[in-house]
Amino acid sequence: MGRFGWIGIMLFAVHGTAWAADCEWKAPQKPPIFTLERWGGARFSFTADPRWFQCAKKAGGTLSLQFTVSGENEQRSLPPRSMTSYSDAAGLSFKEICEQGPGDKTVQATLVGKGQLARLDFTSQQAHYYCSRCDEGRRLETFVLFTDPQLTPTGMYTFQAKVDEAWHKCAREGSTLELWLYAAPTRLEAQEMKEPTHKVAGLESSPTIKKSFARAPICQDGVQWLGYELRGTGELQLLYEGRAVGEARCPH
């Protein structure tokens, strides 16, 4: 090769190195988002600075996303997915999560970059998902907490719920069910509290639930509102459909 050819290659190499080093790093305005929903499955998304991302990509950087699913006898990593845009997303369906059978699963997303795109490396927290063994369908038919003194025995609250009988017959084996209560002075607190103030256990034995329990231990310290939700283990954890909030009607 002639002298000018070598000079051209050297100039190209120097220019490329300098250009790659000139990718001005701009931190993302928001961290990546990882969510896991009952019917939507897992979803991961991120947004980087467009100009920096294109510069880092042209300099040879690559970026991939990998989901991992873990269970009692399971540890698998799904094939990496190439992330080619500065604002990209990928998902994992509940069928993919539950491919190897029912039970408790944890799902995690890992973003791995090479070259300058390694600045975007990220590992999400583990998210919990339960893969059911019983037929899907409408499981919880009714769900109500009676707080009005005229509708419940004196000094008591009464909780009632009705679970689909066929589903309950399949689900109750090895499962437990409780009513979690969130007693608070304000509606917002009762809705947003992280830990229950009281629990009513032993609700798993029948698809028809009717349970009365004393007001006095709950109606303390200015309680005005009462949040309540069903929480279970095993298959009965699928009865959780969110938290309801109502007036506590405490005799202050």
Instruction: Enumerate how many helices there are, as a single number.
Output: 5
Segments where pLDDT lies below 50 for 5+ residues?
Answer: 1-20
Mean pLDDT: 90
The fraction of residues assigned to DSSP E strands is 35-45%
Head-to-tail CA distance between termini: 96 Å
Whole-angstrom Rg: 27 Å
Number of strands: 16
Residues in helices, as a percent range: 10-25%
Domain count: the total is 2
CATH class of the largest domain equals: Mainly Beta
> Which term fits the overall shape?
elongated
User: And the CATH topology of the largest domain?
Assistant: Immunoglobulin-like
Q: What about the largest sheet?
A: 6 strands, antiparallel
H/E series:
HEEHEEEEHEEEEEHEHEEEE
Structural class computed from helices and strand pairing: alpha+beta
The CATH architecture designation of the largest domain is Sandwich
Describe the structure.
The chain is α+β, with helices and mostly antiparallel strands. It contains five helices and 16 strands. A hairpin with a 7-residue loop joins strand 7 (103-114) and strand 8 (122-123). Mean pLDDT is 90; it is low at 1-20.
Briefly say what this structure is.
The strands form four sheets. Strands 3, 4, 5, 7, 8 and 9 form a six-stranded antiparallel sheet that branches. Strands 13-12-15-16 form a four-stranded antiparallel sheet. The chain has a three-stranded antiparallel sheet with strand order 1-2-6. The radius of gyration is 27 Å and the shape is elongated.
